[in-house]
Amino acid sequence: MRSILAPSVISPRRASAEVALSVCSWAASFASMKIAVSEIHPFLAVWFRILFGMLIITPAVMYRGDYRRPFRDEVIPFMILAFFGVAFHQNLQFAAMRSAGVANSNWMIAGTPAFVALLSWIFLKEKLNRLAVGGLVISGLGVLLILGLGTRNLGSNAGRGFGDLMIAVSAINWGVFQILSRKLLKNHSPAFSIFWVNLLALIMQSALVFFIAPQKFSGLLDVSVKGWCSVIFLGCVCSGICYLMWYDGLSVLPATNVSAFMFLQPIFGAVVAYFLTGERFTAFLYIGGALTMIGIWMVNNRNSLEDGG
């Protein structure tokens, strides 16, 4: 955990491990969101998630010695990231999970790397060598195989419809957030950045909850232990620890390499969906999963990093 808490520079291998752990945790986030919004209004669930996340992020920033007030010219970029990367993104996903399926949501989020690769090539001038391109293609084929043949018995909870559309929009939005974050991290430490991004997002969400929808607090005493555990997991783990690890990865690895790990999400998401929503998967999931992991290795091996950075 030293790389999460301490201000030391981490290796690309350690950064890759942290990003992979983040993605695996986020794979369980959709199931947790579905549980949370069944008992708590989405606006309020997002507010609790950001709040609990700050309980992890704040001491990490203090321990690293990265706390300071942002300069005047830094406020607007941080506000933009806070809106797109946290407030808008999470409100969109929480609202979507009222109807979208857990597995389908993970599949669509896994499509983010293709969009990120295009944006990185256009705006960040990150080169894609043949090995990296091949890895993205192979990983994409693995995800498509899983999507088409990996699951069965989805039933009426497959989530096809407006909820899925909202998740697809959130996937594109997350790609934009990664590109914006990558540019910001060139001049700021990960902990400093994620602290102010989440703090500003908490202020935005507080305005939404307290001034626009204060009635959403009613009924909190009726929320079950399962509902509170879901929100705490989303905040402390998914928004706290995972955001710190993800930003560590973005500070070391090119955005395209980091985004390739999103291909892992549908694999772990299918496992979570199996136990929590009754969705089943076939042997094609394992075949597609193998292709996905091979592709990730191709995108993130040393030659790809040296040529693509």
Structure description:
The protein has 309 residues and is mainly alpha-helical. It has one domain (8-308). Helices cover 76% and strands 1% of the residues. A two-stranded antiparallel sheet has the order 1-2. It is globular, with a radius of gyration of 19 Å. The model is unreliable at 1-7, 154-160 and 304-309 (pLDDT under 50).
Could you list some keywords that capture this structure?
2 strands; 309 residues; mainly alpha; disordered C terminus; 1% strand; disordered N terminus; globular; 76% helix
What is shown here, in short?
The protein has 309 residues and is mainly alpha-helical.
**Domain module tally:** 1
Main sheet properties: 2 strands, antiparallel
Please indicate the percent range of residues in DSSP E strands (runs of 2 or more): under 5%
Please give the count of helices: 15
- The arrangement of helices and strands along the chain is HHHHHHHHEHHHHHEHH
Derived structural class: mainly alpha
Mean pLDDT: 78
* Main β-sheet, spatial strand arrangement: 1-2
Distance between the termini: 26 Å
**Low-confidence segments:** 1-7, 154-160, 304-309
Number of strands: 2
Please give the radius of gyration in angstroms: 19 Å
Shape: globular
